[in-house]
Amino acid sequence: MAKKKLNIGIIGYGFMGRAHSNAFRKVNNFFDLEYEPVLKAACARNAEKAQDFADNWGWESIETDWRTLIARDDIDCIDIGSPNNTHRDIVMAAAEAGKMILCEKPLAMNTGEGEEMTAAVEKAGVANMVWYNYRRVPAITLAKQLIDEGRIGRVFHYRAKYLQDWTISPELPQGGEGLWRLDASVAGSGVTGDLLAHSIDTAIWLIGGMDTVTAMTETFIKEREHSLTGKKQEVTIDDACAFLARFDCGALAPFESTRYARGRKNQNTFEINGEHGSIFFDLEDPHRLEYFDNNHDSHVHGWQSIHVTDFEHPYMDHYWVPGTTIGYEHTFVNAIADFLKSLEDGQDAMRPNFRDGLETQYICDAVLKSAKTGAWESCKA
Amino acid sequence: MAKKKLNIGIIGYGFMGRAHSNAFRKVNNFFDLEYEPVLKAACARNAEKAQDFADNWGWESIETDWRTLIARDDIDCIDIGSPNNTHRDIVMAAAEAGKMILCEKPLAMNTGEGEEMTAAVEKAGVANMVWYNYRRVPAITLAKQLIDEGRIGRVFHYRAKYLQDWTISPELPQGGEGLWRLDASVAGSGVTGDLLAHSIDTAIWLIGGMDTVTAMTETFIKEREHSLTGKKQEVTIDDACAFLARFDCGALAPFESTRYARGRKNQNTFEINGEHGSIFFDLEDPHRLEYFDNNHDSHVHGWQSIHVTDFEHPYMDHYWVPGTTIGYEHTFVNAIADFLKSLEDGQDAMRPNFRDGLETQYICDAVLKSAKTGAWESCKA
Amino acid sequence: MAKKKLNIGIIGYGFMGRAHSNAFRKVNNFFDLEYEPVLKAACARNAEKAQDFADNWGWESIETDWRTLIARDDIDCIDIGSPNNTHRDIVMAAAEAGKMILCEKPLAMNTGEGEEMTAAVEKAGVANMVWYNYRRVPAITLAKQLIDEGRIGRVFHYRAKYLQDWTISPELPQGGEGLWRLDASVAGSGVTGDLLAHSIDTAIWLIGGMDTVTAMTETFIKEREHSLTGKKQEVTIDDACAFLARFDCGALAPFESTRYARGRKNQNTFEINGEHGSIFFDLEDPHRLEYFDNNHDSHVHGWQSIHVTDFEHPYMDHYWVPGTTIGYEHTFVNAIADFLKSLEDGQDAMRPNFRDGLETQYICDAVLKSAKTGAWESCKA
Amino acid sequence: MAKKKLNIGIIGYGFMGRAHSNAFRKVNNFFDLEYEPVLKAACARNAEKAQDFADNWGWESIETDWRTLIARDDIDCIDIGSPNNTHRDIVMAAAEAGKMILCEKPLAMNTGEGEEMTAAVEKAGVANMVWYNYRRVPAITLAKQLIDEGRIGRVFHYRAKYLQDWTISPELPQGGEGLWRLDASVAGSGVTGDLLAHSIDTAIWLIGGMDTVTAMTETFIKEREHSLTGKKQEVTIDDACAFLARFDCGALAPFESTRYARGRKNQNTFEINGEHGSIFFDLEDPHRLEYFDNNHDSHVHGWQSIHVTDFEHPYMDHYWVPGTTIGYEHTFVNAIADFLKSLEDGQDAMRPNFRDGLETQYICDAVLKSAKTGAWESCKA
User: Fold this and answer.
1) Domain range for D258
2) What is the per-residue pLDDT for B2?
3) Which of A142, A298, A302 is nearest residue D312 as measured by Cβ atoms?
4) Alpha-carbon distance B18 to B124, whole Å?
5) Which residues in chain D have their CB less than 8 angstroms from residue C278's CB?
6) Separation in Å, CA of A325 to nearest CA in chain C
7) For position A231, which CATH number holds?
8) Confidence (pLDDT) at B1
């Protein structure tokens, strides 16, 4: 059966541009879907880089101005993989042009932008999704399923951390290609928007909304050379952030993130402790979910390490055989598969949408505010 | 060579009474020391229980009034294993009588008591130690050694948690024998004094003093039957407590404790992230220390799991052969060995002393205060 | 720069057909190579299935007779993903036609076939490779590198196991699509050729040739319904196989494989113990390599868990960012990248070639022979 | 209630002498028993060493000739902790004298001795036990319980290894105090009698008798200085031994042991794979038992890590609180507690007795014989 074509125009050719391109190319090999993404056009300011990127990934054409891309009639869907400070303007224009929008996380530089953007896509009635890809790690999706099955019950505790160690050297410059995440004027914030936003999105998906937070942040290296200016400049991002939260459900929750944790490459973990059981996940072993079931006979109580690679585990029937793992890139494949499935059946798989992304934005802003005031702050709109 | 006798009088016959008795009995089998504890007298209000306890552990005599015990000329050292609300009065009397004092943790019900007690032992000039036994888990002592060797460098992060799950059932009563830790009038506080005090003592020993904290506490089960009254009464302890800390050295640190973490039996963990390396410990696998050394060739970087059972590891040359583990009880044996060694050589192994225990008390009180005020509070005297 | 086209004709559309197709499609997205595979034609006896497969993976055309495929002038390279009993005839014809050949493992049904096939490709002088994909798990390639760096020294011990649990149910039929691995007339043997062949290929790559073996096999379920006949028939494969080996280097080595190990999904492990260090690998956590370095200070001796996801780890600079994992499928991508690189530079990356695959075949046959004779058997030609 | 005294005379003051002494001293502190061991006399050829040992552990008197010890009327039970080549003569004399006998493992130098010794104690009708202490690791006792509860079902596979690394250096001498295990004339064999005997005793206790074996052994360092002669002499023990076994129940089983496995300090592991579940144990983490239960819902299938420290776990209600570990020494305490309990109630806890120890001896001898013949050998009498 012929597939319905969904023409994609991508903006950004960096790490996320590659991850999205790969997902668009692969999704139909693994998922049986009505829709098929077509890699129509790749957009970047530098034509040569855009062309190299397009050649490498099979984009049919290039653009150097995203406004031109949005204006093209042969584009159905704008995919945003460019730095955070570009999201708002692109989204506003794309929504107005009636394009579907896939936007990298975090949604916006701040709550104000996020509200505008969410209002715009909702008013335009266009399909929209934020690429919080970790919801599609099969083990995390399984965690959601176990909760929905009632296996955890009333949640007492949630704890999350997201630790990396790649910015410890004071020699590392800030800003510019590959390093814009260290430049607050481009990234909006440091680990809060880059890493904790992931932790928060996962948390509110799993156990519901967050009520209040108290936070602390730190910038360990006060000055770094800026790649674009060649000068030593103040570092204004948060190198590390920790906060305590109280969820709407009553759970207590410490969250923590840093890029100064020696030996932690990408340690995104969460643990949930409930009345009937507990769950633990660590992105450094992404194919495993640790689960404690209090209903077992008590002399065999123990954390069970679920190797989330069986056909009955989320997404895994689309890949290889039990016992074989998928990788980081497949979280994007799974996400776009769900998005396409939503277009097909009108169901709710197209999540997190912009409104969900906005909820995370409110929390990030409350965290950053509390780090300044020293007081508990509300996470609500 | 004949040993110098150190006559001990113990107060309390519960869990800690047993742990201390065992340590006194065993220490000279494993350590070559000038001093030898003599199990002279055990004291408890109930004579029958005191006698059973004495018979079981080999205490030569019993007393039913601790004032009588302290008054005995044949007692050199008072060992306190009774509930927290008894510590102050016993210490004040024992110090006045010029006895050495070993006191279970936490030192006191609060800072006020702790200051009085510390002043008393210092004025009396009597040997004193608080049983924060986890400093003597060989893996934790090794952590201290690695830090002192400069293997960690500037500390960016410390994180600790102490999770248990034994009070989740609402049917569990509060108060009375074995359950006094759930009764604030006897225990002073809940997890803060019972569990976080351990975490804090370890932390300040390893990386130095704590400056400020912001905290939250929760009591999940609001009312429980009281064992002594038979009536449902308000639960006034903290079932859970989480706090953020800033250390004097600049490190950021989330701490958390609860008795509502399904599947965590005694999960006392800490992690330290520094410039040159990191350390992780979990009391559920107490014979292991995880260590990340950033100085290795980078393609073999990885957390190394040190099986802390070799002759060159702290305390382990006193026990069996490499590869064989010791248990929980040996942390007390090691502690009393260090105490006796201090008597012998006048060196500093008799730590934590009361002043150290008081430092932890200040922090616990700051945590409990912050949980009420919602503000950052100072940990200093 | 325009790529050199390498036109592929694939035979087989099952699990391995999918894995190879995916690798051909992806390799140029991730590796910068002169050559580019072109998915020219897919061949299967059933035209409809061939067409579905071709549509799904982007094969340009189909064939239903592999002899026709081999005869096509526009095919440069024959890729064999069909069952074991088809390898010999296809290879003989393809070699004669001067085609490059990529052949799934095990190379052949037995040593006799393997010798013929190896002679044929060597006589024809065509590029040839056997898909022992696990050599390209980055952690296993890193193990090879550590050995080559002299970090292990004289090897005393090697131990390997490959455990699965998918055939325990007596209800599982044998034979037919997806189950031909249970039919000895198609597969040649059971776990020996399917799983131990992997373990052996890895072992001889890492520490050199094997000298002698003594073995035992077992078939736990004696009869199973045959999918093609619908009748209960004797099961003639080995459900399990264990053997002891002595390597040329003097190392002692137990090997074991089964499909009856409850809870082991794909547990392919090996451990090497040498004079200076040890290595451990488990395919269920494929992104980790455990390494013990005896040169460290002895008080920090410990197994270090290398998260094999850094840019300096084998193959990983072609993928995402440090800390993010790749999956099972990438072992095939890495293999074809090495094959293409070999075509480009004439270097030795095109390994294991047929001669290497033949060496494993000798060992498998010695194992199966010993299981019958009960005696030690030679692994040599 | 007054205890019945059981007067012990111990022979040997080395590692095992210490372990046994400690157990005798502690058992009544932790177990409520009718009988109480009395540390009556310690025997060693060197009077000074005997006296030091007696002083350290509280033995009331010493002897320098074990025949004198056995002749003493005030000795009820002879405990043998001396080297393997002394066991037979001591046992024959003690049995004749009607003494109870506790004998370190392995029971004898060989089957011939073992048969004599077993016949002697059975004829004399004296209580007898072999110190295969690992049956009393709570996690191993729990494994036995899970099997007895039917949780494993038909056993397909058993695999065991016992790896150490303390003899790799060629500088290590053989023979003499602390090193007699490297001298075949004293030890009988190398790793087979020292380590594999443990693995075998555990295995046959858990899944029943062994039928046939095929084995290989190796001595890596051919000559070592002998401590007693000061000369380089041939090393005649087995440094390493691996064998394949078939159990009476049909299970296939590789066993392996060595003292040349870098980084493995005391890695005594076993795994059992059965119809309904699997079990894994590792002595380096002795407080854990890994259990796979195939009856769980399949999407939560996973190995559960049982922290064997709860009151309902074997032996653990005698010690501290849930979540706190015991150590190596407690396996001896548990063993003597069971022995004393057997005296009290006449039940079967006094196992392994000499007949059980003899069964292990038959297997060890079959293993050593097969290593010479290269053939499968019978494990039966």
Assistant:
1) 134-378
2) 83
3) A298
4) 28
5) 261-264
6) 5
7) 3.30.360.10
8) 62
**What pLDDT, on a 0 to 100 scale, did the predictor assign at position D2?**
83
Above 80 in pLDDT, residue D1? no
Section D347-372 average pLDDT: 96
Dist. CA D76–CA D98, nearest whole Å: 8
Of the partner residues A57, A164, A319, the one whose CB lies closest to the CB of residue C323: A164
Number of domains in chain D: 2
Pairwise CB contact (< 8 Å): A275 & B262 = yes
Mean pLDDT of A289-315: 97
Mean pLDDT of B325-336: 98
Residues D187 and D286 in one domain: yes
The band of B178, judged by pLDDT with boundaries at 50, 70 and 90, is: confident
- What CATH number does the domain containing A125 carry? 3.40.50.720
Does the distance separating the beta carbons of B262 and A277 come in below 8 Å?
yes
CB–CB contact A156 B220 (8 Å): yes
A 10 A CB-CB count for D232 gives 13
Q: How confident is the model at residue D379 (pLDDT cuts 50, 70, 90)?
A: very high
Q: What average pLDDT does this structure show over A148-160?
A: 98
Query: Within a 13 Å sphere around the CA of B41, how many CA atoms are in the beta-carbon half?
Result: 21
| Shortest Cα distance, chain B CAs vs residue A171, angstroms | 14
Cβ of C260 and D218 within 8 Å?
Answer: no
Q: What is the mean pLDDT of residues C204-228?
A: 97
Asked if residue D118 and residue D178 are part of one domain, the reply reads: no
Pair (A145, A109) in one structural domain: no
Tokens of B8: 């001990």
| D144 and D110 within one domain | no
Measure CB to CB from residue C252 to each of D242, D263, D294 and give the nearest one: D242
Chains with ≥3 CB–CB distances under 8 Å to A? B, C, D
Chain A residues with CB-CB distance to C166 below 8 A: 322
Q: Could you tell me if C173 and C282 lie in one domain?
A: yes
Q: Contacts of residue C313 in chain B, CB cutoff 8 Å?
A: 299
Tens-place pLDDT, residues D8-29: 999 999 999 999 999 999 999 9
- CA D71 from chain center: how many Å? 27
Indicate whether A119 and A199 sit together in one domain.
Answer: no
pLDDT digits (tens, 9 = 90+) for C5-42: 999 999 999 999 999 999 999 999 999 999 999 999 99
Cβ of B310 and D22 within 8 Å? no
- CB B339, CB B100: distance < 8 Å: no
The answer on pLDDT for C204 being more than 90 is yes
pLDDT for residue A1 is more than 70: no
Q: Which helix (H) or strand (E) holds C39?
A: strand C35-43
Among C133, C153, C171, identify where a domain stops: C133
Which residues touch C61 (CB under 8 Å, ≥6 apart)? C40, C41, C42, C54
What's the distance, CA D252 to chain centroid? 23
Q: What angle do CA D326, D327, D329 make, to 5 degrees?
A: 120
Dihedral over Cα of D7, D12, D18, D23: its sign? negative
Task: Give the residue-averaged pLDDT of D31-45.
Answer: 97
Interchain proximity A254–B254, CB inside 8 Å: yes
Nearest to B214 among A214, A252, A253 (CB): A214
On whether both C111 and C221 belong to a single domain, the answer is no
Provide the whole-model pTM.
0.97
Q: What is the pLDDT of residues B213-264, one digit of tens each?
A: 999 999 999 999 999 899 999 999 999 999 999 999 999 999 999 999 999 9
Cβ contact (<8 Å) for A302 and D300?
no
* Boundary residue ending a domain (D131, D157, D172): D131
Q: Given a cut of 80, is residue B105 above it in pLDDT?
A: yes
Which chain C residues have a beta carbon less than 8 Å from that of D262?
A: 273-278, 292, 294
Nearest to B59 by CA among B11, B109, B95, B21: B21
Neighbours of D355 (CB within 10 A): 16
Minimal C-alpha gap between D292 and chain A (Å) = 8
Instruction: Write the residue in B242, B261, B273 that is nearest to A278 by C-beta.
Output: B261
Same domain, C116 and C150: no
